[in-house]
UniProtKB/TrEMBL annotation, chain A:
Residues 2-232 form the ABC transporter domain. This is ABC transporter ATP-binding protein. InterPro entries: AAA+_ATPase, ABC_SmlMolc_Importer, ABC_transporter-like_ATP-bd, ABC_transporter-like_CS, ABC_transpr_FbpC, P-loop_NTPase. Keywords: ATP-binding, Cell membrane, Ion transport, Iron, Iron transport, Membrane, Nucleotide-binding, Transport. GO terms for molecular function: ATP binding. PANTHER family: SPERMIDINE/PUTRESCINE IMPORT ATP-BINDING PROTEIN POTA, SPERMIDINE_PUTRESCINE IMPORT ATP-BINDING PROTEIN POTA. The keyword Transmembrane does not apply. Pfam families: ABC_tran.
TrEMBL record, chain B:
It comes from Nocardioides koreensis. This is Thiamine ABC transporter substrate-binding protein. Keywords: Signal. InterPro entries: ThiB-like. Pfam families: SBP_bac_6. It comes from the Bacteria.
Automatic annotation (TrEMBL), chain C:
It is found in: Cell inner membrane; Cell membrane. CDD domains: TM_PBP2. Gene3D superfamilies: MetI-like. Belongs to the binding-protein-dependent transport system permease family. PANTHER family: INNER MEMBRANE ABC TRANSPORTER PERMEASE PROTEIN YDCV (PTHR43357). It comes from Nocardioides koreensis. This is Iron ABC transporter permease. The keyword RNA-binding does not apply.
């Protein structure tokens, strides 16, 4: 179990991570989510032992890791672009940690084959990294990280260098692989979809601090503040009167602010709200609208493909309570 | 952002480049290009004459003097030999009596006689019957001793070549090697003259057995190992010149702290000569005469550390008092040197590197 | 095998997208023509002239006599000593230089830049002066006399390392500086200790740079002249000293030619081996500027070794400085004041200060000459080849420009005199001869510093620039220049230093009335008179200080963000 207690990391006196406290129980995957420059990578590097915290403690199973060098921590680190060893073949990359530990070569070969199978790269053993695609390289990097069953695997934006479709597929694979290996993992990312797909728990970082932490759905349902809500994929945050109108329409108690997902308002004949369509755009699954609702202002809404109200038309809207998140006063 | 920074850096570098072109030698007008009105002197690194004398020559002869100085006497000679069909100048100075035969054999120099000042003829190169080379200066390579060291150690300094192999002087002698130093070569020739073409090898064996130390060049031996040199050497006997004692007079003292052993000397004479195929023969001859003029002869000791060959030239006071010239030096026939240099050096290398 | 497949794939691909097929070889030839011509006139021609004199003794072709020389036992001894001393010195220089390259290019600590510049100083000091300084340390009466190293092979090795370790630090440091630290971090996280990270990740990535540096250092060591003579007490001869002796003292051109041929063959073999060792599967590297970090506990060994090196370099220099501040056994600035004069009794043609100006001006010329030629060569050599033949031509070019390092300055100097004597090449007395000769000596260093970097640029970046409408020149400016900028400065500093310190070829060439500083120092130290000796030391200190200042300025010129391009 990894514990971070009031960890602060400074670069030349400028704090990059401020008093971060987090727990990561064995077998869980924790995603640290935040915009670039929020200090999440620094936090990861501190856990890996590549940066020295100026304050606070990082502990593993209760033992303070201060002074323990990177290579003795028993963790594995996987970077955004894999950072494979270009001069070694795929097999030698994957078997690297095993050979470092002087494992018998027959055992290395066995384990490498196993891992390549796990990441779906059978037959790639003798290729050089330069001949692989981005997705393949990440798979090799993952296999390499898993080779010695690390106590903890640290993932630094593992998928963000890949294109969208591949990212989605690999995120699912990554989750599968981590689950089946039973590995504890700490992942940092700026992509909430990636975090939702891979992780069990979420910590949101901003300005070097963790602003919210908890289970995925917990965080997702109740963002700590408007900025967090927006970062988690909510389309808008409404306050005051607008919030009151919307919550009332959803049948929810009044709150000072509410975060609204894009698909929270749906055009339907008998909806409690009405508004005038400002613009509309069809996507393969639904029509995305911007609607001017009196008392609320411009909001996003969707309508089924069959119903495509033109600009200027009046539409009725229902509100899906599950796609709203009430926020404390801000 | 990044590229603009690179651009500004590039601009800075260009500006720097432009300012610096002022420091370039390209496009600089070469004042030394030879023209019809110039005479080109080919000489070695050690050639120096006061500016006033150079001006005097130019005024009196009507020619500009262009000096091409590089390398030592050996390089100079070989350079002249290699370029004899298309000489690199009109006149040469600095070929000495150990290399002169090679130059004469190759036909580098043209005959030129003039009414030499008294004394110069005494230094004429043996075998130079057509008078192709004119003696300009001379100096002796002699073993020098640190008198203060021997006084401090209550020991009499050595006097002769034989003394140097005496166990009393074990590990006290340092000298530059013959293969790498013209000074060292002169000492080898002294021993050949002293012990004969078959006897010098035995002498050198004894010398080396007695702990003589070889260095690459004169400066190494004198400045590093000699007790009176620039450093903190520990050997009080060194191979140097007959003029060296003039440079080791302590401030306020009346005597030099070192002296040259006058029975161990080999005489070196440097010559000037008109090059065969010279473009400006008239200018070349004027320069040869100039080198034997009283003013140049008087300037030689302080400019080039050598003695004049012409009689009656006044020496600098330090030289007159402390630099004693031997009356009788060892000499080897230049023709013999030319014929055997290779063989002698090879034998010498074998003996000394054993 | 896989690497080759990929290579040819890319070649096919790029040939479709790049300039039209006819203009390409022409453009390449155009790029290379200037440096090749310069090399031809100022190197190949003079050297062949000297070889010809050796082979055609007495007007008839007589290769037998030349080959006979190679059978002499003395030649075998000389060759063995040359190879042995150069190999050992190279190995030591690499072993000492690597930790220092790490400390001086990956870490930051107060005074780092000064140390970096100071370690380059030996590179410019005239061997004759350093020889004296070394011997004052090591000699029987010196502070290190108890080691009994004077006149031993160990002293020669120490001297060679002293002069050449800067090459390792610079060449490897430049590569190390822009090495992505993340693979190493990943390896550490996988359980590799710092030593294992170094061995399995860092070292393979640095291999091209190390091989480059080592091959240059080997050539410098194998052709060292003054160090072998001065520190070896005449007991050791290398091929270089032997050629010198044969040419200047004995005028035995046949033997000299034989040894010169041997040198050339050895250089070619060395280059082939180095080329093999340098080849890496994927020359393209991601260039990031790793933030230099403060030293950590694990850096102790690197810092210690840098300190050791600093002592090795500083000790002889300190001897020089102390000596230069003494007149007649007392502390004094007299030697420095004397530098503006012509020496006691007009010992010099020009004051030392004038010689310094000449040296600097010559160095400026030599630097721009070698940089521009080096850039042209590097660009030509690193372009992707379309065919095997084209690649071979490029490799040949690459090697051709290393040759000047492997040829004796004496051979070159005499060669100049006998071949450059007729119009249109009547250049024997051109004032440009000295900077050109020095530029040729510096050229291999420039090429070796730039080539690995240029080879690391992804060709697709140039294609991208071209597709955005950039002409070939503009593409080079936007893609190559920003990356090459910093190594180019490093190479420029190198070339400048080489030129400032060059003595062998310079002393040989007609210098007319403008001797360079090393020549003046040589003359001062070679003549009696305590003042001359002191002035020689002072002049050397001035030369060393000038070099340090120039190097510091060059370091400052470095664009800090360059690695982020």
């Amino acid at each position: 179990m990894l514990e971070l207690e009031n960890v602060t990391v400074r670069y030349d006196g400028v704090p990059a991570v401020v008093e971060v406290s987090l727990d990561l129980p064995d077998g869980e995957v924790l995603a640290v989510l935040g915009p670039s420059g929020c200090g999440k990578s620094t936090l990861l590097r501190a856990v890996a032992g590549l940066e020295t915290p100026s304050d606070g403690a990082i502990r593993w199973d209760g033992r303070d890791l201060a002074g323990v060098p990177t290579h003795k921590r028993g963790f594995a680190l996987m970077f955004q672009d894999g950072q494979l060893f270009n001069h070694l073949t795929v097999a030698r990359n994957v078997g690297y940690a095993l050979r470092i530990r002087r494992t018998r070569s027959s055992r290395v070969a066995e384990r490498v084959a196993e891992l390549l199978a796990l990441v779906g790269l059978e037959g790639y053993a003798e290729r050089l990294p330069a001949t692989l695609s981005g997705g393949e390289r990440q798979r090799v990097a993952l296999a390499r990280s898993l080779a010695v069953d690390p106590r903890l695997i640290l993932l630094d934006e593992p998928l963000s260098a890949l294109d969208a479709g591949l990212r989605e597929r690999l995120a699912g694979d990554l989750r599968e692989i981590l689950r089946s290996a039973g590995t504890t993992a700490l992942m940092v990312t700026h992509d909430h979809e990636e975090a939702f797909t891979v992780a069990d728990r979420l910590a949101v970082m901003r300005g070097g601090r963790v602003v919210q932490a908890g289970g995925i759905s917990e965080v997702w349902r109740a963002p700590a503040d408007p900025e967090t809500a927006l970062f988690l994929g909510y389309a808008r945050v409404l306050r005051g009167e607008a919030a009151r109108v919307l919550l009332a329409a959803a049948g929810l108690p009044v709150a000072p602010a509410v975060a609204v997902r894009r698909s929270a308002l749906v055009a339907a004949p008998d909806g409690p709200l009405t508004g005038r369509v400002v613009s509309g755009r069809a996507t393969p699954e639904q029509v995305r609208l911007v609607v001017e609702v009196p008392g609320v202002g411009q909001v996003d809404a969707v309508s089924p493909l069959g119903l495509h109200p033109g600009p200027g038309e009046q539409v009725s809207l229902t509100v899906e309570a599950a796609k709203l998140a009430t926020l404390p006063g801000a | 952002m990044k590229s603009s920074r690179a651009l500004s850096a590039l601009a800075a570098l260009t500006t720097l480049g432009l300012t610096v072109t002022g420091c370039s030698t390209v496009g600089e007008e070469s004042s030394d290009t030879s023209t019809d009105s110039s005479v080109v002197l080919v000489t070695h690194d050690s050639f120096v004459l006061p500016k006033a004398l150079k001006k005097k020559f130019e005024q009196e002869s009507g020619y500009d003097l262009v000096v091409r100085a590089s390398g030592d006497a050996g390089q100079l000679t070989n350079k002249l030999v290699l370029t004899k069909d298309d000489p690199i100048g009109d006149v040469a100075f600095g070929v000495d009596n150990t290399f002169a035969s090679r130059a004469l054999d190759a036909g580098v120099f043209a005959p030129y006689s003039f009414d030499e000042p008294a004394g110069a003829a005494d230094y004429a190169l043996p075998g130079d019957d057509d008078h192709r080379l004119t003696p300009v200066d001379n100096g002796n390579v002699c073993v020098n001793v640190d008198d203060t060291w021997f006084a401090d150690h209550d020991q009499a300094p050595p006097k002769t070549l034989d003394d140097l192999t005496d166990p009393a002087y074990q590990d006290l002698f340092v000298l530059p090697g013959a293969a790498t130093s013209s000074t060292g070569m002169a000492f080898l020739l002294a021993t050949i003259a002293a012990y004969g073409e078959d006897g010098w090898q035995g002498y050198w064996s004894k010398l080396m057995d007695n702990g003589a130390k070889l260095t690459a060049g004169w400066s190494d031996a004198y400045e590093v190992d000699f007790t009176q040199g620039g450093g903190s050497g520990d050997r009080p006997i060194v191979l140097s010149y007959d003029s060296s004692p003039a440079f080791t007079v302590p401030k306020g003292a009346k005597t030099s702290s070192t002296s040259a052993l006058l029975d161990t000397c080999f005489e070196q004479v440097e010559y000037a000569g008109v090059l065969e195929g010279a473009g400006n023969v008239d200018g070349a001859e004027a320069f040869v005469r100039f080198m034997d003029s009283p003013e140049v002869q008087a300037a030689l000791p302080e400019s080039m550390y050598v003695f004049p060959v012409v009689d009656g030239v006044k020496l600098p006071s330090d030289w007159a008092r402390y630099a004693v010239q031997p009356t009788d030096s060892y000499a080897v026939d230049p023709a013999d040197v030319a014929a055997h240099r290779d063989e002698w050096l090879r034998d010498w290398s074998d003996i000394t590197s054993r | 095998m896989t690497a080759r497949t990929r290579w040819s794939n890319r070649t096919r691909w790029s040939s479709r997208t790049r300039w039209s097929s006819l203009s390409r070889p022409l453009a390449l030839a155009g790029l290379a023509v200037v440096p090749v011509l310069v090399l031809g006139v100022f190197f190949v021609l003079p050297v062949s002239g000297m070889l010809q004199l050796g082979f055609w003794a007495d007007g008839s072709f007589d290769p037998g006599a030349v080959l006979e020389v190679l059978g002499r036992p003395r030649v075998h001894r000389v060759v063995w000593f040359t190879v042995w001393s150069a190999s050992v010195a190279t190995a030591v220089a690499v072993l000492l230089g690597l930790p220092a390259a790490h400390a001086l290019h990956r870490l930051r600590f107060p005074g780092r830049d000064v140390v970096r510049a100071a370690l380059l100083v030996p590179f410019v000091l005239p061997t004759v002066v350093v020889g004296v300084a070394f011997r004052q340390l090591l000699g029987e009466a010196g502070p290190l006399g108890f080691l009994r190293l004077d006149g031993t092979a160990v002293a020669i090795l120490a001297g060679l390392v002293f002069f050449n370790v800067a090459v390792v630090i610079r060449v490897v440091g430049a590569a190390w500086e822009s090495l992505d630290p993340r693979p190493g971090e990943a390896a550490a996280a996988l359980g590799a200790s710092p030593a294992q990270v170094f061995r399995t990740v860092t070292l393979p990535a640095l291999r091209p740079a190390i091989v480059s540096a080592a091959s240059v250092v080997f050539l410098f060591c194998a052709t060292a002249f003054g160090v072998v003579l001065t520190l070896g007490g005449l007991r050791y001869s290398s091929v270089e000293t032997e050629i010198y002796l044969l040419t200047t003292n004995l005028l035995d051109l046949q033997a000299a030619a034989a040894l010169s041929i041997l040198q050339l063959v050895a250089v070619v073999v060395l280059l082939l081996v180095a080329g093999r060792l340098r080849a890496v599967p994927d020359p393209e590297v991601s260039r990031v500027l790793a933030r230099p970090r403060w030293p950590a506990r694990g850096d102790v060994w690197a810092l210690t070794s840098t300190l050791l090196l600093l002592v090795l370099v500083a000790a002889p220099i300190a001897t020089l400085v102390v000596g230069s501040l003494h007149v007649d056994g007392d502390w004094s600035l007299g030697n420095y004041r004397a530098l503006t004069t012509n020496g006691t009794h007009q010992a010099l043609l020009v004051p030392v200060t004038d010689a310094l100006v000449t040296s600097l001006r010559t160095a400026v010329d030599a630097t721009w000459m070698s940089l521009s030629m080096g850039l042209l060569v590097a660009f030509t050599v690193t372009r992707r080849s379309r065919s095997r033949a084209e690649r071979r031509v490029r490799r040949g070019l690459d090697g051709l420009f290393m040759l000047p390092l492997g040829v004796s300055a004496v051979t070159l100097g005499f060669g100049f005199l006998i071949t450059l004597d007729e119009p249109p090449l009547d250049l024997r007395s051109s004032p440009l001869l000295v900077p050109i000769a020095q530029a040729l000596v510096a050229l291999p260093l420039v090429v070796r510093t730039i080539v690995p970097v240029l080879a690391g640029i992804n060709d697709r970046q140039r294609q991208a620039a071209a597709s955005l409408g950039a002409g070939p020149l503009r593409a080079v400016l936007t893609v190559d220049l920003p990356v090459v900028w910093k190594p180019l400065l490093a190479a420029g500093g190198f070339a400048f230093a080489v030129s400032l310190g060059e003595f062998g070829a310079t002393s040989f060439l007609a210098r007319e009335e403008h001797p360079t500083l090393p020549v003046v120092i040589y003359r001062l130290i070679g003549h009696p008179g305590p003042m001359n000796y002191g002035m020689a030391l002072a002049a050397s200190v001035v030369l060393a200080a000038t070099t340090t200042v120039v190097m510091l300025v060059v370091e400052r010129l470095r664009v800090p963000s360059v690695g982020a391009f």
